[in-house]
């Protein structure tokens, strides 16, 4: 926190203490019960989230601009004018500068958790010390924590409160009236807010006229500012005068377990108020070394109903691990009366004790990675994650020769390859053969260890035109034929390559005893047989069959359990989970139980989908009979109940959807949940997920969604997701005590989600992750209610390092995610010829084959299992292990996006396969030293999804003007 902010908060805290000591507050001079007060706006500006505009100030403009989730207005009034008043009703009067083209339709108003400066900028000019989207005081202090934006201090974030209301249509002179929740103003009066943030809640508009669909992205809605002669003003009705403070807080509970050093979670019950108002919030300070400091407002909770607990996560205070402080808390009511102080002395979380590593466990290079046979043939031993240019023989992306590096796998002097593995783990190494070889064959010989499962596989190459130059890249993995000639033909092409790479894959079954196993890999070239010894050290622990971290292979086509399990089986073999969305834009599912009109016919569904859910589809595979980890449900807005016969045109789901639709859809949800429970399918996460988007109607009139469900941006879209999620949470709880029946949403723009889906969403798939998004999710977990999240994006391009899936998995797990999801994973016939970033599975007539990138996801999943078992074996909080990982490897990579709609790809070129190999060996040795017994599962995902959920009370202003919402044009 800056010196400026510390001084400001110290002054503010002293004023609060002075008010408390002086007793009751004094009402504003003109305030009397039953009166209507006209309150002037004394400062206003607007801020923009768009590109470089996020640093600009508009404090001197004569207009304010509201534009969906891109531009927001900030206004403030003199709180002394309403001191002591219990506000019954409030209306904001604004004059629209665009009354015909873009009036205010529905206005959201929020408290603001940080002080800000109006500034005197125009046209987004940067003004030091002035408010902008990125900072409350540009180049001086942030809105909240470092790297935060205004979105961290408004609309639910930073412990703010908000509501929305429909505005009256513009009058002849453009004036509109918009109701404001009284508590939003009362918070400013009480000194627990710094003004009002205004937002255009409708955002994008659309129309359907005679079959022609038009989508209007973020109309510019202007209204006049106080710099004009028609600035906004508040009309406030006062119910009564309140001079009695709330009761003191009785007890403060402090929790530090599992938190990073220097932090604490403080919980207390909301005290009762007296005098006509309500307990609204709190003033909080902490004392250390005899000095008192304010706790920043964005960390301090608003009050709940009397007796209900509130939670404050103390962080960002630069407290040393284990440091002792005294916390001081005073309740404040809606009229600004401050209650007595309650204090609690405690120590914040200490520094996590991480077990010391034996440095002898750190692997060192065994020597060169290249060995020559007696006849002069060169064999290069490489890691699974090493990528070799098949023409030049150089590594991608470093460009250095693959045959000149050091090896952690090959002891060239002893002609020995050294491997380490847990039970139920797959490990790999590459053999790259150079020079001319005729009738080449590779085999293995592991006498005495017949249970070890070996495969010899071969890299195929595909074409690439990266940087405008034709090129070859290795990616598909195909079975090794009986013999091969080098140079050999490119798959489905005729270009010759200079060498050939093979992948030796070893699976260590459950029943394998720990210790050293030896064997050999045999390379036959003509009459020559060259043997490389293989030494495998089996550690004394076993990876679980049920995944603790799920690499979810997303698919939209080609895959159907009604036709084949081949893609599901290939994913299962690679410790990933194939998940096919069963419906398209029209909402009609390709595979689903038959809807009879009031119930389901389960015969076909149970026959074809049931084996994926009871595990019988995977009988005999590595994770024998383990069910799929996650599965999309066929439910959507148009199935099994059609939406448009039940839809009245509106931007708001609660107005648009009929009671009959709600009842029928809820009954369908319950019927499905009851069937799942009856079948005992308790090991699969079933996801109710809405994927469609209203603007798909530009491409086809058969698109069924009236909102943007996938990657929502507008409040109307989040509000629709909330409507469906609430219905789901009402319909399935009686059946979900054992089964995982989750409401899911995919949200790239989680910074705009506010707290609209808190207590509603069981799992969030977050795209294009940033530190801000991770922070927002972690705040939700600690301050409201546990939930889950995945990170979604893209696997690496073929021109990029294959370490990316591993690093993505490590980074996501360290941030608290339970999995990663590449948004598309199924290739097509063209993927064999032209590099396809999304082709993790390559189709063939005989069945799909994997890419080496799919095997990299296996590597990443197994490494996260190491972390999970390590955390449990050493009784360490996840945060401590995550911090340790980040201290060793810079895994928080940049997410590169080619466009705003791109899911994003995490960059990974800065960490080498050798770095990951070293980490894996250190963790494996430490876990093996503990010899933890086998568990089928180390993580129970249902533990963090309570049956009883609670959601924030959000939405409409009450009381509000009786205004009908503005509707989209709807003429079929």
Task: Describe what this molecule looks like in 3D.
- Helix content is 17%, strand content 29%.
- Strand 18 and strand 19 (342-347) form a beta hairpin.
- The protein is α+β, with helices and mostly antiparallel strands and 972 residues long.
- The longest helix is centred in the last third of the chain and has 22 residues, at 852-873.
Layout of secondary structure:
Layout: H1 3-21, E1 36-48, E2 63-66, E3 71-77, E4 85-95, E5 106-111, E6 162-166, E7 175-179, H2 182-189, E8 196-200, E9 205-209, E10 212-216, E11 221-224, E12 233-241, E13 252-255, E14 264-269, E15 279-288, E16 291-294, E17 309-314, E18 324-333, E19 342-347, E20 367-368, E21 370-372, E22 378-382, E23 406-407, E24 410-411, E25 416-423, E26 425-433, E27 437-445, E28 453-464, E29 471-479, E30 484-486, E31 500-508, E32 515-525, E33 528-542, E34 550-555, H3 566-573, E35 577-580, E36 594-595, E37 600-601, H4 603-608, H5 610-614, E38 630-632, H6 653-656, H7 659-679, E39 685-689, H8 715-731, E40 740-747, E41 763-767, H9 771-783, E42 788-793, H10 804-814, E43 819-822, E44 841-842, E45 849-850, H11 852-873, H12 878-888, E46 895-896, E47 905-906, H13 913-930, E48 969-971
Parallel strand pairs: 9-48, 25-33, 34-35, 34-43, 38-39, 39-40, 40-41, 41-42, 42-43
Antiparallel strand pairs: 1-3, 1-12, 2-11, 3-8, 4-7, 4-12, 5-6, 5-8, 9-10, 13-14, 14-17, 15-16, 15-18, 18-19, 20-23, 21-22, 22-26, 24-25, 26-31, 27-30, 27-32, 28-29, 28-31, 32-33, 36-37, 44-45, 46-47
Helix pairs in contact: 7-8, 10-11, 10-12, 11-13
């Amino acid at each position: 926190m800056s010196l400026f902010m510390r001084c400001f908060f110290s002054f503010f805290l002293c004023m609060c203490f002075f008010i408390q000591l002086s007793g009751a507050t004094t009402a504003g001079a003109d305030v009397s019960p039953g009166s209507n007060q006209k309150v002037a706006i004394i400062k206003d500006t607007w801020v923009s989230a768009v590109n470089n505009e996020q640093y600009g100030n508009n404090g001197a403009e004569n207009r304010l601009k509201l534009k969906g989730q891109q531009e927001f207005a900030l206004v403030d009034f003199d709180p002394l004018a309403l001191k002591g008043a219990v506000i019954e009703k409030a209306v904001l009067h604004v004059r629209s500068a665009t009354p015909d083209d873009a009036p205010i339709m529905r206005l959201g108003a929020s408290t603001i958790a940080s002080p800000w400066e109006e500034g005197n900028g125009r046209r987004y000019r940067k003004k030091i010390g002035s408010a902008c989207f990125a900072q409350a005081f540009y180049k001086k202090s942030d809105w909240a924590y470092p790297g935060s934006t205004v979105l961290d201090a408004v609309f639910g974030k930073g412990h703010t409160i908000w509501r929305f209301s429909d505005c009256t249509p513009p009058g002849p002179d453009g004036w509109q009236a918009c109701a404001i929740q009284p508590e939003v103003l009362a918070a400013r009066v009480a000194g627990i807010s710094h003004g009002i943030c205004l937002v255009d809640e409708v955002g994008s508009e659309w129309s359907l006229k005679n079959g022609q669909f038009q989508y209007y992205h973020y109309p510019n809605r202007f209204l006049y500012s106080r710099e004009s002669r028609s600035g906004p003003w508040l009309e406030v009705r006062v119910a009564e005068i309140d001079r009695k403070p709330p009761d003191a807080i009785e007890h403060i509970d402090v929790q530090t377990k599992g938190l990073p050093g220097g932090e604490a979670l403080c919980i207390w019950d909301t005290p009762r108020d007296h005098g006509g108002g309500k307990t609204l919030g709190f003033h909080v300070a902490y004392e250390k070394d005899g000095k008192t400091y304010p706790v920043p407002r964005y960390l301090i909770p608003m009050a709940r109903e009397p007796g209900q607990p509130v939670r404050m996560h103390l962080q960002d205070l630069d407290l040393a691990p284990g440091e002792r402080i005294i916390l001081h808390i005073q309740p404040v009511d809606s009229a600004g009366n401050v209650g007595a102080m309650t204090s609690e002395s405690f120590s914040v979380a200490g520094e996590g004790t991480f077990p010391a590593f034996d440095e002898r466990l750190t692997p060192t290079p065994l020597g060169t990675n290249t060995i020559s046979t007696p006849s002069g043939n060169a064999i290069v031993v490489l890691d699974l994650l090493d990528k070799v240019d098949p023409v030049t023989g150089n590594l991608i992306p470093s460009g250095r020769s693959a045959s000149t590096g050091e090896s952690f796998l090959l002891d060239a002097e002893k002609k020995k390859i050294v491997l380490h593995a847990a039970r139920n783990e797959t490990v790999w190494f590459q053999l790259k053969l150079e020079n001319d070889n005729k009738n080449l064959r590779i085999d293995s010989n592991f006498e005495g260890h017949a249970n070890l499962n070996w495969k010899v596989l071969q890299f195929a190459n595909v074409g690439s035109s990266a940087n405008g130059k034709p090129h070859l890249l290795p990616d598909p993995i195909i079975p090794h034929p009986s013999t091969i000639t080098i140079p050999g033909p490119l798959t489905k092409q005729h270009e010759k390559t200079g060498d050939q790479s093979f992948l030796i894959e070893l699976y260590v079954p459950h029943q394998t005893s720990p210790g050293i196993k030896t064997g050999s890999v045999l390379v036959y070239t003509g009459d020559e047989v060259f043997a490389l010894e293989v030494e495998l050290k089996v550690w004394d622990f076993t990876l679980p069959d049920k995944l603790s971290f799920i690499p979810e292979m997303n698919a939209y086509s080609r895959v159907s359990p009604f036709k084949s399990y081949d893609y599901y089986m290939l994913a299962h073999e690679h410790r990933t989970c194939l998940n096919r969305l069963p419906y398209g834009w029209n909402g009609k599912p390709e595979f689903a139980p038959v809807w009879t009109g009031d119930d389901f016919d389960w015969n076909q569904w149970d026959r074809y989908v049931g084996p994926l859910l009871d595990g019988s589809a995977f009988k005999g595979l590595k994770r024998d009979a383990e069910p799929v980890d996650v599965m999309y449900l066929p439910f959507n807005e148009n199935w099994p109940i059609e939406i448009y016969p039940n839809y009245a045109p509106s931007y708001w789901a609660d107005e648009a959807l009929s009671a009959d639709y709600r009842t029928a859809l809820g009954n369908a949800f319950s019927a499905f949940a009851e069937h799942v429970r009856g079948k005992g399918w308790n090991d699969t996460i079933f996801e109710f997920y809405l994927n469609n988007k209203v603007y798909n109607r530009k491409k086809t009139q058969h698109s069924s969604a009236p909102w943007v469900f996938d990657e929502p941006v507008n409040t109307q879209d989040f509000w629709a997701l909330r409507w469906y999620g609430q219905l789901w949470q009402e319909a399935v709880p009686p059946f979900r005590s054992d089964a995982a029946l989750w409401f899911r949403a995919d949200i790239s723009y989680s910074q705009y989600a506010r707290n609209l889906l808190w207590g509603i969403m069981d799992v969030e798939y977050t795209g294009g992750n940033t530190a801000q998004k991770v922070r927002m999710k972690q705040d939700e977990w600690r301050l409201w209610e546990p939930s889950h999240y995945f990170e979604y994006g893209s696997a690496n391009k073929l021109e990029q390092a294959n370490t990316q899936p591993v690093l993505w998995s490590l980074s996501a797990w360290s941030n608290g995610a339970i999995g990663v999801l590449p948004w598309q994973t199924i290739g097509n016939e063209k993927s064999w010829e032209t590099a396809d970033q999304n082709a993790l599975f390559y189709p063939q007539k005989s069945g799909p084959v994997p890419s080496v990138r799919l095997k990299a996801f296996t590597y990443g999943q197994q490494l996260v299992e190491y972390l999970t078992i390590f955390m449990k074996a050493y009784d360490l909080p996840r945060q401590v292990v995550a911090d340790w990982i980040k201290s060793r490897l810079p895994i928080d990579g940049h997410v590169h996006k080619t466009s705003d709609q791109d899911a994003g790809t995490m960059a990974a070129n800065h960490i080498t396969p050798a770095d990951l190999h070293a980490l894996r060996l250190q963790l494996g040795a430490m876990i093996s030293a503990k010899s933890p017994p086998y568990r089928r599962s180390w993580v129970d995902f249902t533990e963090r999804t309570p049956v009883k959920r609670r959601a924030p009370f959000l939405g409409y202003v009450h009381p509000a003007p009786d205004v009908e919402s503005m509707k989209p044009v709807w003429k079929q």
